[in-house]
Amino acid sequence: MTASNQTKNNGQAPAAPEEIPLPPPETEGSLANQAIPLGETILTIHAGEHPIYGIMQRSRAVTAQSDYYRLQFRGYARSDGTRWLPMEGDDSRFHAQYNLAWVRVDRPSKTVTFGPKNGVQCSPGLEGTGLDTYLFGNAIAWAKGVCPDFAIAPGLLTLGQASDEVRTQTHAFYASQAFQFEWQDPAQRNALYFKDKVSKLLGVWNKEAIREFGGEEMLQMLAGQDEARMALQYKLDLAENAQDSMRRALQKEKSTSLILTGVLILAALIGVWAVL
C-alpha cells in the first residue's frame, strides 16, 4: 500500500516533522569573560582646546553559537601644549559601564544585538567628545562586515527623568546611524531603537575629531621630538660656550685691571720716593 493510499484510508495527513526550538542567545556577560584582546590602538580625541590621548582595545569571543566583538577605551592624558595632565578615575581605566560598545551575533536566530543595553555612555571627563559615536560606529562597521544580512534585535533605552536636550541628543545619536527611533510612553522615558537589517545601518563617526594614532605617526612624532631636543641642546651648548667665553674675557679683563692697578700704585710710590 502506498503512502497516498494509506492517507486516504486513514483520512489523516502525515504528521509534520516537529521543529527543534532555537537555543537562547548566549549572554554578553559570559561572552565578555571569554573575549580575547585583539590589540590596542592609540586614539587622539580633538575635542575642545586640549587634545586627549588614550588607549582603545578591541577584543573578541567566538563560540559555536555566537560571535562577540567589544571596543573599550581608557584615557591616558590631556595635553595643554606644554605638559601632560594624566586622566583619573573612570576616565583612565577600562570600565564595564563607560566608554565601551559591543556586538553579539547569534547564529541560530541570525540576529545581532548591540550594547550596552542602555546605550553607549561616556565617563564624566569624556562626555561631549564624540567618543560614544566613535565606539558605536566602529561596532556597527564590524557587524556590517561580518553579518550584513542578519536581523537586528531591537534595543530598549530607559532615560528616566532626562531633560528635553538629552532626549533630543539620544534620538539624534541613533538616527545618525540610520536606526529608527520610537518613544514608548507619553512621558518619553523609554525608547526603542531598531532596524530590520545590519546592512542598512551606517557605522559612521567624525574622523577629524577622533583619529587612530598609527605606528608610523608615532615614530614620526618621536623622531620630531628627538630632532627638537637635539636642536635645543645645540642652542644650549652655544649659550654655554658663549657664557664661558664671556666669563674668560671678564676674568682676563679683571686680571689686566689688577695688573694695571698694581703698576699705577707702584709708579705712584716711586714718584713719592723721588720727591722725598
Automatic annotation (TrEMBL):
Keywords annotated in UniProt: Membrane, Transmembrane, Transmembrane helix
Domain of life according to the entry: Bacteria
Keyword Transmembrane helix: yes
Residue ranges crossing the lipid bilayer per the database entry: 256-275
Region (Disordered), start-end ranges: 1-29
Amino acid composition bias (Polar residues), ranges on this chain: 1-12
Protein name in UniProt: Uncharacterized protein
The organism of origin for this protein: Chromobacterium alticapitis
